[in-house]
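PROTEIN DESIGN WORKSHEET
SECTION A - STRUCTURE
LENGTH: 180
TOKENS:
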């Protein structure tokens, strides 16, 4: 019985992962039609099963990573259990370079980049003759960036997907020490 529920859960998570969509925890509970205790047991079983496949479930609450038991939504990500061997440099697309540049700026501003300061980024070679507003909208839609409002000002901050995909692995200093 656990395997059947596990299969349903994984199928639903993967289908939503393809769409770049976080899956609300309640949606999964409704899908399986289990009580809270049974649902938590299936989540734990599924998590262990996915780890054997090199995938992990990531809990997200308030745009931050948290334990699956305390999360509001769930996302999947690949685990990297061992360091890559040999030269593992990958060609980085221009959109990825733009995204990494935004990550850097936001980190330098302590996760609160004022919207007004974004005009400065248009001077960067990656953003010349480019629709920054459309790119920011795409990044926000995909969960890489988020907007906070405080004191009648808008601030760009890192979104849930940044924490799910890059959190520990994205290092500003290393990024700029390589040729981009």
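SECTION B - SEQUENCE
RESIDUE ASSIGNMENT:
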């Amino acid at each position: 019985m656990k395997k059947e529920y596990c299969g349903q859960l994984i199928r639903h998570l993967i289908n939503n992962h393809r769409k770049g969509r976080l899956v609300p925890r309640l949606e999964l509970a409704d899908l399986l039609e289990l009580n809270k205790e049974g649902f938590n047991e299936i989540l734990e079983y599924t998590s262990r099963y996915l780890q054997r496949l090199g995938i992990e479930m990531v809990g997200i609450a308030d745009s931050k990573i948290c334990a699956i038991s305390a999360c509001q939504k769930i996302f999947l990500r690949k685990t990297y259990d061992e360091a890559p061997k040999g030269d593992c440099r990958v060609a980085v697309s221009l959109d990825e370079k733009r995204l990494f540049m935004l990550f850097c700026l936001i980190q330098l501003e302590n996760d609160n980049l004022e919207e007004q300061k974004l005009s400065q980024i248009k001077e960067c070679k990656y953003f010349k003759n480019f629709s920054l507003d459309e790119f920011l909208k795409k990044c926000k839609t995909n969960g890489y960036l988020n907007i906070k409002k405080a004191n009648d000002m808008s601030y760009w901050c890192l979104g849930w997907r940044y924490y799910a995909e890059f959190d520990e692995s994205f290092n500003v200093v290393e990024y700029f020490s390589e040729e981009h």
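SECTION C - NOTES
The chain has a mean pLDDT of 84.
The chain has two domains: 2-78, 94-177.
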